[in-house]
Specification:
The structure is a single chain. This protein is an all-alpha fold and 142 residues long. It is 68% helix and 0% strand. It has five helices and no strands. The longest helix has 29 residues. The chain is globular and about 45 Å long.
């Protein structure tokens, strides 16, 4: 059986797919933001962004078998370490890891929001570091 790293897409492809997915989440956020502003005015923009991001990634990973729109455009997909499609729990964890900092950013308490900012920075830096430097090229979400 091939090693896990043989299944891993090159960092450049993963970054392009991530950028495309970020733009798709931003569009979804704009659509949800208008709806939430009218129906749930007490929700912060960051919380709506977190909901949009989680929903986009989770639904794409489950329904499209590990392929978000960005991954489809770049012709890559996410699979589990055994080469199979992701389980539902793996999809929840993967979408949740990258969404969690935005939940904290939306907090009214400035210390919790600061924690969210630090968590987001740590996540971004560790994702880039692992993507470029780890032997398996697996990131925190992987």
């Amino acid at each position: 059986m091939p090693s896990t790293s043989s299944f891993t897409a090159e960092p450049g492809k993963r970054l392009w797919a991530g950028g495309f997915d970020f733009l798709a989440v931003c569009v979804l956020f704009l659509v949800l933001g208008v709806t939430f502003e009218k129906v749930y005015p007490h929700y912060s923009g960051w919380l709506v962004f977190a909901i949009a991001s989680f929903a986009y990634h989770f639904v794409c990973l489950v329904v499209r078998e590990g392929r978000t729109l960005g991954k489809t455009a770049i012709d890559i997909c996410v699979i589990s370490s055994n080469g199979q499609h992701l389980s539902t729990s793996q999809c929840v964890l993967r979408a949740g890891v990258r969404t969690l900092p935005f939940v904290f950013l939306g907090a009214k308490d400035p210390f919790v929001a600061l924690f969210g900012a630090v968590l987001l920075l740590a996540l971004v830096l560790s994702e880039f570091y692992l993507l470029e430097r780890s032997l398996s090229r697996q990131t925190v979400a992987d």
